[in-house]
Amino acid sequence: MGKIPAKKICVIRTSALGDVVHAMALMGALRHGYPDAEITWVVQPLAYEMVKHQGAADHYVLFDRKGGRKHWQALRKRFKGEVYDVVLMLQVSIKASAISTLIKGRIKLGFDMARSRECQWLFSNRRIPKKTPGHVQDQFFEFADYLGVTDYPVAWNFGFTEGEVAERSAFFDGLGAPAVTFVVASSSPDKDWPADRYARAVDHVARKGLVPVLTGGPSPREKALADEISRLSQEKPVVALKNGIRDLLVVLSGSTVVVSPDTGPLHMAVALNVPTVSLFGYSNPRRCGPYRRFQELLIDRFTESGEENEARRYFKTGRMEYISVSDVTEKIDLALERYAFL
Question: Is the dihedral angle over the CA atoms 293, 297, 299, 304 positive or is it negative?
Answer without folding.
Answer: positive
